[in-house]
Amino acid sequence: MGSLHHLREETLELVRVLDPDGNLVGEPAPDLTDEKLVEFYRWMVLARTFDERCLNLQRQGRMGTYAPLAGQEAAQVGSAFALQPEDWVFPSYREHAVTMIHGLPMEKVLLYWMGREEGNQIPPEVNVFTVAVPIATQIPHAVGAAWAARIRGDRRAFIVYFGDGATSEGDFHEGCNFAGVFKAPVVFFCQNNQFAISVPLHRQTASETIAQKAVAYGFPGVRVDGNDVLAVYKVTKEALDRARAGEGPTLIEALTYRYGPHTTADDPTRYRGRDEVEEWRQRRDPLNRMRRFLMARGLLDEAQDQTLAEEARQRVAAAVQAVEAMPKASPAAIFDYVYAQLPWHLEEQRRELLAELGEAGAAGGSFAGGGAPGPGAGGPGGAAAGGSGTAGGQGATAAGGAPGAAPGRDGQQGGGR
Predict the structure, then answer these.
(1) Is residue 155 assigned to a domain?
(2) Mean pLDDT in the chain?
């Protein structure tokens, strides 16, 4: 029982650098410049601003179903900044901040959630896999890509994101087992936001933590305060360094909380109380924690904080304006982003639809002026939007060509490359 008790203590330990009041506690702070610390906070503000705007767009009928990230900014920003540009990101459907930090233009993220297939066409220079809406399906993909890189002698690392509900899926266990056996250079990053839609964590697993599941597969598991951006950065960097050094995978459980619904189709008041949400908002908010830390160090004041917020609002507003100014998509575009060459039966359906649209157009149909790209425009690398909800009817762009980009890791445009 002694060794079992020792294991239990290790797996329950929570790595933390900042307490909820922004004070340094526990682990030493990572070695970061003052400019980088402010950049972390800048991105957290931008992520929340983006999230709030997307929720408003959805409620106004200008965006389809959307998966909010509010409350999880530290988990996403801290882990994304630990990556190197050549590393690969395999997101689920909530990692908007991660993908933008890693180089995906904000306009692409907006297009995706507006129901546009072009939003899932990743620019070739951006190492981000397409959005995965089905739960945990991206995990075997990430492990396979990481294993291929190891076979080639490629020292880049891979990180795959998922929620606590995904750990109840077979894909999670198969991916972990394979990665452990073959020492794939992959980091499994679980944003444990306490609920798989409406199902609380204790109904998902009998394990006291998710991190301890790594033990069964022969690699380390780490439990980190997911609302502490510095702690998340620290443990993710260590895990990515292990992967690049050929030491195999790591499972990170980032303990966090989503303030809003699972998606805009969800009503969280049906399965959790207001007091619980307010406890996380008021006491454990990741932005408040980092803001207090920066102010205590003299790196931020109220005026600068307001400036950052205004810059974020302007950046998001410009991206929304650019996307909504694009031509409307034709319904025929649904045929253009899955196959390099359409099968005969889909080609036949496409012709029938175009013929119908021609008649509708003559009668004043609503899709005029939005010609669809030719068959196979997305190419073999194109991907379907994967059930992102109803099309918002706003904005198309040429394949692979959304204008502008989110501020990069060092504040410049284009993902900081």
Answers:
(1) yes
(2) 85
Among 262, 284, 291, 315, the active-site one is: 262
- Of 271, 283, 297, 351, which one is the catalytic site residue? 271
- Contacts for 82 with CB less than 8 Å, ≥ 6 apart: 233, 236, 237, 240
Tell me 154's DSSP state.
Answer: -
216's tokens? 């069964």
In a domain, 216, yes or no: yes
The amino acid at residue 181 is V
Query: Apex CA 252: angle with CA 249 and CA 255, to 5°?
Result: 175
Residue 140 lies in a domain: yes
Q: Residue 407 pLDDT more than 90?
A: no
Q: Is 6 a catalytic residue?
A: no
* Annotated active-site residue in 42, 150, 258, 289: 258
Please list the residues that pair with 290 across neighbouring strands.
none
CB distance 11 to 212 below 8 Å? yes
Residues 6+ apart with CB under 8 A from 369: 327, 328
Domain that holds residue 109: 2-324
Report which secondary-structure segment, H or E, holds 34: helix 34-59
What number of residues does the chain have?
417
Question: Does 262 participate in catalysis according to the annotation?
Answer: yes
Per-residue DSSP letter, 130: P
89 touches 96 (CB < 8 A): no
CATH number at 298 reads 3.40.50.970
Is 259 one of the annotated active-site residues of the chain? no
Q: Closest by alpha carbon to 252, among 222, 295, 214?
A: 222
By the 8 A CB rule, do 150 and 184 touch?
A: yes
Q: Do residues 286 and 227 lie in contact, with contact meaning Cβ atoms separated by under 8 Å?
A: yes
Number of domains composing the chain: 1
- Residue 331 placed within a domain: no
Q: How far apart, in whole angstroms, are the C-alpha atoms of residue 139 and residue 166?
A: 9
- The two tokens of residue 176 are 């972990």
Answer for the pair 131, 113: CB distance below 8 angstroms, yes or no.
no
**Tens digits of residue pLDDT in 354-400:** 998 885 544 333 333 333 333 333 333 333 333 333 333 333 333 33
Contacts of 120 (CB under 8 A, 6+ apart): 112, 130, 131, 337, 382, 383, 384, 385, 386
Residue type, 143: V
CB 84 within 8 A of CB 57: no
